[in-house]
Design goal:
Strand content: 5-15%
Radius of gyration: 21 Å
Helix content: 55-70%
Number of domains: 2
Largest sheet: 3 strands, mixed
Structural class: mainly alpha
Length: 294
Protein backbone atom coordinates (compact mmCIF):
# COMPACT_ATOMS: atom_id res chain seq x y z
CA UNK A 1 0.00 0.00 0.00
CA UNK A 2 1.39 3.37 -1.01
CA UNK A 3 2.07 5.70 1.88
CA UNK A 4 0.61 9.19 1.72
CA UNK A 5 1.24 12.39 3.60
CA UNK A 6 3.87 15.07 3.74
CA UNK A 7 7.47 14.26 2.89
CA UNK A 8 9.54 14.12 6.07
CA UNK A 9 12.68 15.74 4.63
CA UNK A 10 11.71 17.70 1.48
CA UNK A 11 15.10 19.38 1.13
CA UNK A 12 16.77 15.98 0.96
CA UNK A 13 14.47 15.13 -1.95
CA UNK A 14 15.61 18.30 -3.72
CA UNK A 15 19.23 17.38 -3.03
CA UNK A 16 18.79 13.91 -4.53
CA UNK A 17 17.12 15.34 -7.64
CA UNK A 18 19.86 17.94 -8.00
CA UNK A 19 22.62 15.33 -7.78
CA UNK A 20 20.89 13.15 -10.34
CA UNK A 21 20.26 16.06 -12.71
CA UNK A 22 23.87 17.26 -12.53
CA UNK A 23 25.19 13.74 -13.11
CA UNK A 24 22.95 13.33 -16.16
CA UNK A 25 24.10 16.71 -17.47
CA UNK A 26 27.75 15.76 -17.06
CA UNK A 27 27.47 12.22 -18.44
CA UNK A 28 24.90 12.90 -21.14
CA UNK A 29 22.97 9.74 -20.28
CA UNK A 30 20.28 8.66 -17.85
CA UNK A 31 21.59 8.10 -14.32
CA UNK A 32 20.07 5.40 -12.13
CA UNK A 33 19.08 6.16 -8.55
CA UNK A 34 21.71 3.81 -7.14
CA UNK A 35 24.47 5.67 -9.02
CA UNK A 36 23.54 8.76 -7.01
CA UNK A 37 23.44 6.83 -3.76
CA UNK A 38 26.80 5.22 -4.46
CA UNK A 39 28.52 8.60 -3.96
CA UNK A 40 27.72 8.22 -0.26
CA UNK A 41 28.11 4.42 -0.29
CA UNK A 42 24.36 3.98 0.28
CA UNK A 43 22.79 0.57 -0.21
CA UNK A 44 19.60 0.39 -2.36
CA UNK A 45 17.38 0.76 0.71
CA UNK A 46 19.17 3.90 1.98
CA UNK A 47 19.16 5.33 -1.53
CA UNK A 48 15.40 4.79 -1.84
CA UNK A 49 14.79 6.42 1.53
CA UNK A 50 16.90 9.43 0.51
CA UNK A 51 15.04 9.81 -2.78
CA UNK A 52 11.65 9.71 -1.04
CA UNK A 53 12.67 12.17 1.67
CA UNK A 54 12.66 9.58 4.45
CA UNK A 55 16.40 9.93 5.06
CA UNK A 56 17.94 13.30 5.89
CA UNK A 57 21.29 13.85 4.18
CA UNK A 58 22.90 16.87 5.78
CA UNK A 59 26.12 15.91 7.58
CA UNK A 60 29.09 18.13 6.73
CA UNK A 61 31.05 15.10 5.55
CA UNK A 62 28.27 13.87 3.25
CA UNK A 63 27.64 17.29 1.72
CA UNK A 64 31.36 17.83 1.11
CA UNK A 65 31.59 14.42 -0.56
CA UNK A 66 28.64 15.23 -2.84
CA UNK A 67 30.15 18.60 -3.78
CA UNK A 68 33.47 16.95 -4.65
CA UNK A 69 31.84 14.21 -6.73
CA UNK A 70 29.74 16.73 -8.67
CA UNK A 71 32.51 19.35 -8.96
CA UNK A 72 30.32 22.07 -7.45
CA UNK A 73 30.80 24.52 -4.60
CA UNK A 74 29.97 23.07 -1.19
CA UNK A 75 27.99 26.23 -0.43
CA UNK A 76 25.58 25.35 -3.26
CA UNK A 77 24.90 21.94 -1.70
CA UNK A 78 24.32 23.64 1.66
CA UNK A 79 21.87 26.08 0.03
CA UNK A 80 19.77 23.15 -1.17
CA UNK A 81 19.71 21.37 2.18
CA UNK A 82 18.80 24.59 3.99
CA UNK A 83 15.99 25.39 1.54
CA UNK A 84 17.67 28.58 0.31
CA UNK A 85 17.63 27.23 -3.25
CA UNK A 86 15.24 24.79 -4.91
CA UNK A 87 16.15 22.37 -7.70
CA UNK A 88 15.80 24.83 -10.59
CA UNK A 89 17.62 27.62 -8.77
CA UNK A 90 20.49 25.36 -7.74
CA UNK A 91 20.84 23.92 -11.24
CA UNK A 92 20.89 27.47 -12.63
CA UNK A 93 23.81 28.29 -10.31
CA UNK A 94 25.59 25.12 -11.41
CA UNK A 95 25.18 25.98 -15.09
CA UNK A 96 26.33 29.55 -14.55
CA UNK A 97 29.48 28.46 -12.75
CA UNK A 98 30.34 26.15 -15.65
CA UNK A 99 29.59 28.83 -18.24
CA UNK A 100 31.88 31.31 -16.44
CA UNK A 101 34.78 28.89 -16.74
CA UNK A 102 34.10 28.36 -20.45
CA UNK A 103 33.67 32.09 -20.96
CA UNK A 104 37.02 32.83 -19.37
CA UNK A 105 38.73 30.51 -21.83
CA UNK A 106 37.02 32.16 -24.80
CA UNK A 107 37.87 35.70 -23.71
CA UNK A 108 41.52 34.78 -23.05
CA UNK A 109 41.83 33.78 -26.69
CA UNK A 110 40.85 37.27 -27.89
CA UNK A 111 43.08 40.31 -28.22
CA UNK A 112 43.23 42.37 -24.97
CA UNK A 113 42.41 45.57 -26.86
CA UNK A 114 39.34 43.92 -28.36
CA UNK A 115 38.13 42.72 -24.96
CA UNK A 116 38.72 46.15 -23.44
CA UNK A 117 36.81 47.88 -26.23
CA UNK A 118 33.82 45.57 -25.87
CA UNK A 119 33.76 45.95 -22.10
CA UNK A 120 33.96 49.75 -22.16
CA UNK A 121 31.22 49.94 -24.78
CA UNK A 122 28.89 47.74 -22.75
CA UNK A 123 29.72 49.51 -19.47
CA UNK A 124 28.82 52.86 -21.00
CA UNK A 125 25.44 51.46 -22.05
CA UNK A 126 24.89 49.91 -18.61
CA UNK A 127 25.66 53.23 -16.90
CA UNK A 128 23.06 54.91 -19.07
CA UNK A 129 20.41 52.33 -18.16
CA UNK A 130 21.24 52.64 -14.45
CA UNK A 131 21.00 56.43 -14.59
CA UNK A 132 17.57 56.18 -16.23
CA UNK A 133 16.52 53.77 -13.45
CA UNK A 134 18.04 56.12 -10.82
CA UNK A 135 20.01 53.19 -9.42
CA UNK A 136 22.11 54.48 -6.53
CA UNK A 137 21.59 51.95 -3.74
CA UNK A 138 21.47 48.14 -4.13
CA UNK A 139 19.59 46.10 -5.02
CA UNK A 140 18.57 47.04 -8.56
CA UNK A 141 14.82 46.68 -9.15
CA UNK A 142 14.00 45.20 -12.54
CA UNK A 143 10.71 47.07 -13.17
CA UNK A 144 12.69 50.32 -13.10
CA UNK A 145 15.17 48.91 -15.61
CA UNK A 146 12.47 47.63 -17.95
CA UNK A 147 11.12 51.16 -18.40
CA UNK A 148 14.15 51.79 -20.62
CA UNK A 149 13.00 49.04 -22.97
CA UNK A 150 9.44 49.79 -24.03
CA UNK A 151 9.45 46.91 -26.53
CA UNK A 152 9.89 44.33 -23.74
CA UNK A 153 7.35 43.36 -21.07
CA UNK A 154 7.51 40.84 -18.21
CA UNK A 155 4.94 38.30 -17.01
CA UNK A 156 4.88 35.78 -14.13
CA UNK A 157 3.68 32.33 -15.25
CA UNK A 158 3.57 28.74 -14.05
CA UNK A 159 6.77 27.24 -15.40
CA UNK A 160 8.69 23.98 -15.10
CA UNK A 161 12.44 23.42 -15.50
CA UNK A 162 13.22 27.04 -16.38
CA UNK A 163 13.34 30.22 -14.33
CA UNK A 164 12.50 32.48 -17.27
CA UNK A 165 12.06 32.43 -21.03
CA UNK A 166 11.65 34.82 -23.96
CA UNK A 167 8.35 34.99 -25.82
CA UNK A 168 8.36 36.85 -29.14
CA UNK A 169 4.95 38.51 -29.21
CA UNK A 170 5.37 40.00 -32.69
CA UNK A 171 8.11 41.57 -34.77
CA UNK A 172 10.17 43.78 -32.47
CA UNK A 173 8.04 43.04 -29.39
CA UNK A 174 8.99 40.60 -26.62
CA UNK A 175 7.76 39.30 -23.29
CA UNK A 176 10.08 37.82 -20.66
CA UNK A 177 8.05 35.25 -18.76
CA UNK A 178 9.37 34.20 -15.37
CA UNK A 179 8.56 31.60 -12.76
CA UNK A 180 5.60 32.62 -10.62
CA UNK A 181 6.12 32.81 -6.87
CA UNK A 182 8.74 34.39 -4.67
CA UNK A 183 11.24 36.21 -6.87
CA UNK A 184 14.63 34.70 -6.04
CA UNK A 185 18.08 35.98 -6.99
CA UNK A 186 18.50 33.26 -9.62
CA UNK A 187 15.24 34.19 -11.34
CA UNK A 188 16.22 37.86 -11.40
CA UNK A 189 19.51 37.00 -13.06
CA UNK A 190 17.82 34.66 -15.53
CA UNK A 191 15.50 37.50 -16.55
CA UNK A 192 18.42 39.88 -17.06
CA UNK A 193 20.20 37.23 -19.15
CA UNK A 194 17.08 37.04 -21.33
CA UNK A 195 17.08 40.84 -21.57
CA UNK A 196 20.71 40.70 -22.71
CA UNK A 197 19.88 38.13 -25.40
CA UNK A 198 17.16 40.35 -26.78
CA UNK A 199 19.36 43.46 -26.76
CA UNK A 200 22.57 41.95 -28.13
CA UNK A 201 21.09 39.34 -30.47
CA UNK A 202 17.44 39.82 -31.39
CA UNK A 203 17.31 43.63 -31.50
CA UNK A 204 20.94 44.68 -31.83
CA UNK A 205 20.14 47.07 -34.68
CA UNK A 206 18.23 49.25 -32.21
CA UNK A 207 21.55 49.98 -30.49
CA UNK A 208 24.11 51.14 -33.08
CA UNK A 209 26.55 52.04 -30.29
CA UNK A 210 27.42 48.34 -29.99
CA UNK A 211 28.62 48.05 -33.56
CA UNK A 212 28.81 44.72 -35.35
CA UNK A 213 29.00 41.60 -33.15
CA UNK A 214 32.47 40.10 -32.72
CA UNK A 215 32.56 36.41 -33.56
CA UNK A 216 33.08 34.28 -30.48
CA UNK A 217 32.57 37.13 -28.01
CA UNK A 218 28.80 37.58 -28.06
CA UNK A 219 28.30 35.63 -24.82
CA UNK A 220 31.11 37.56 -23.13
CA UNK A 221 29.45 40.82 -24.20
CA UNK A 222 26.15 39.69 -22.68
CA UNK A 223 27.82 38.54 -19.47
CA UNK A 224 29.50 41.91 -18.98
CA UNK A 225 26.06 43.50 -19.34
CA UNK A 226 24.39 41.14 -16.85
CA UNK A 227 27.15 41.33 -14.24
CA UNK A 228 27.53 45.10 -14.30
CA UNK A 229 23.82 45.86 -14.48
CA UNK A 230 23.10 43.85 -11.33
CA UNK A 231 26.51 44.34 -9.68
CA UNK A 232 28.00 47.72 -10.63
CA UNK A 233 31.70 47.78 -9.82
CA UNK A 234 31.60 51.13 -8.06
CA UNK A 235 28.82 50.04 -5.68
CA UNK A 236 30.43 46.63 -5.24
CA UNK A 237 33.69 48.24 -4.10
CA UNK A 238 31.78 50.58 -1.78
CA UNK A 239 30.00 47.69 -0.08
CA UNK A 240 33.22 45.68 0.17
CA UNK A 241 34.98 48.55 1.91
CA UNK A 242 32.34 48.46 4.68
CA UNK A 243 32.59 44.72 5.31
CA UNK A 244 34.28 42.70 7.99
CA UNK A 245 36.67 40.42 6.10
CA UNK A 246 36.03 37.66 8.66
CA UNK A 247 32.50 37.24 7.34
CA UNK A 248 31.42 35.30 4.26
CA UNK A 249 31.88 38.20 1.87
CA UNK A 250 30.35 36.49 -1.17
CA UNK A 251 27.18 35.52 0.73
CA UNK A 252 26.89 39.02 2.22
CA UNK A 253 27.25 40.70 -1.18
CA UNK A 254 24.78 38.28 -2.77
CA UNK A 255 22.19 39.28 -0.17
CA UNK A 256 22.83 43.02 -0.51
CA UNK A 257 22.61 43.02 -4.31
CA UNK A 258 19.92 40.28 -4.50
CA UNK A 259 21.97 38.19 -6.94
CA UNK A 260 23.28 34.60 -7.05
CA UNK A 261 26.58 33.87 -5.32
CA UNK A 262 27.98 32.63 -8.63
CA UNK A 263 27.55 36.10 -10.12
CA UNK A 264 29.32 37.72 -7.17
CA UNK A 265 32.22 35.30 -7.63
CA UNK A 266 32.43 36.13 -11.33
CA UNK A 267 32.45 39.88 -10.74
CA UNK A 268 35.05 39.63 -7.98
CA UNK A 269 37.30 37.58 -10.28
CA UNK A 270 36.90 40.26 -12.95
CA UNK A 271 37.90 42.93 -10.44
CA UNK A 272 40.95 40.96 -9.35
CA UNK A 273 42.01 40.47 -12.97
CA UNK A 274 41.65 44.18 -13.70
CA UNK A 275 43.45 45.19 -10.52
CA UNK A 276 46.44 43.06 -11.52
CA UNK A 277 46.67 44.85 -14.85
CA UNK A 278 49.22 47.72 -14.59
CA UNK A 279 46.95 50.19 -16.36
CA UNK A 280 44.11 49.66 -13.88
CA UNK A 281 43.41 51.70 -10.78
CA UNK A 282 45.15 50.75 -7.54
CA UNK A 283 42.01 51.65 -5.63
CA UNK A 284 40.21 48.44 -6.53
CA UNK A 285 43.29 46.36 -5.68
CA UNK A 286 43.54 47.70 -2.13
CA UNK A 287 39.85 47.06 -1.51
CA UNK A 288 39.96 43.55 -2.92
CA UNK A 289 43.07 42.60 -0.95
CA UNK A 290 41.25 43.41 2.29
CA UNK A 291 38.56 40.79 1.65
CA UNK A 292 40.30 38.08 -0.36
CA UNK A 293 40.96 36.01 2.73
CA UNK A 294 37.24 35.77 3.55
Amino acid sequence: MKRSGAVKFPHSVQLFKFCQKVMMHQKGVKVRDQEVGSILNFNPSDCSHWKRGEKNVRSVFALAKLAEALSVETSLIHDITSGSADLDEAFFEYQEARSYRALKGQSQGAAPDQISEIRERVLEFVNQVQQEADFQTPPLYLPEVMRSFAFITTQPVEMLDKLSRILRVKAGQYCIQYKKGELKAQTRMSMVKDLARIIFEGERERFPEFGAPVQGLSIYEQQVFVANLLLPRSLLLQEMSKMDSRKNVIAELATIFWVPKSLVSFQLQELVTDARTPTRSLESQSTIDSVQTA
